[in-house]
Amino acid sequence: APAPDLIRGLAVAEGGPGSSPGRAPGSSPGRVSAIADAARDHWRPKGESDWVPTEPVSVAVALADKIDTLTGFWAIDEKPTGSKDPYALRRAALGVVRLVLGNGVRGGLAGPAYAHLGLIHGLLKANEVLLPLLPAIEYLRSKGLHDLASKLAEHGISSIDAIEVTEVDHALAMATVTDLMNFVVDRLKVYLKDQGIRHDIIDACLAMPGNDDLTLLVKRAEALAAVMKTEDGANLLQGYKRAANILAQAEAKDGVEYSFGAGIKFAETDAERALFAALDKAEAEITPAMQAEDFPRAMAAMAALRAPIDAFFTAVQVNSDNEIIRRNRLNLLHRIRAICSGVADLTRIEG
Q1: Global pTM?
Q2: In sequence order, what are the beta bridge partners of 84?
């Protein structure tokens, strides 16, 4: 059974998600009934066609059960490989996705998973259950923790059960949780494919803060997918990539980062001045929209940059012979990259 702390950590506030219709047939309101419903439905949804619990206690317990299962198997490095999934962990991850999205549950999943992983590791150590019998250095490198692997090598630590360093424990736990979140997101991508949201759109949103809050992630992805289907969105993407490529090439060539603030006083053309004004307007709209999680508004403000960016590239040669003008224009391209990157990582979008 999932730990009580995990259930409490995932509990939905009374009257929150789950107060809408969707209760199991034959269930009735009341605390006793809510507990009975949760005990009965903790394993739902069992498959793609199974219904999703919506009562607050049932949602919390069902989520806790699945996160407990996934975290436990990740803790002992027992994960699905290829077509083999003997413990139905893909189904458990899809269940997490459907429970979260179906009930509009807010909050990151990485925090509860990390805390529960610590509890599981504590229980393993208390009961003298060894973690996977790999050399510590090899295990760390397999998780991408090369710096820590080198540090252990310097101290002559060679076996996983010899690790007592807090820094190493933390790094291993973070790597495990990151791997688990990637697994859940892979299930999310499959789930959203039928809704017309491409994998690259999800990847563009995954690069943003709060990416383990699946409800927030999907809201952002839906808004980005919608704007990328418009002419302005598609053309903005090309303008953004052109700006980013020119900027990256110049920074690599010059060995500096052009992010020191472009000055309108150095603008020589109307197209430059218009782009300055458009970027000021977009930034003023995007910043509060993102804070309010109003992604359609933020995406629309970003898409409105399409025309001034196109006009800028039509009228202006970025690499001017005048070094001051060139630097100013490169700093202006940095503003394009910075403002758009505050909405989504457009470099991850194909096309």
Answers
A1: 0.75
A2: 81
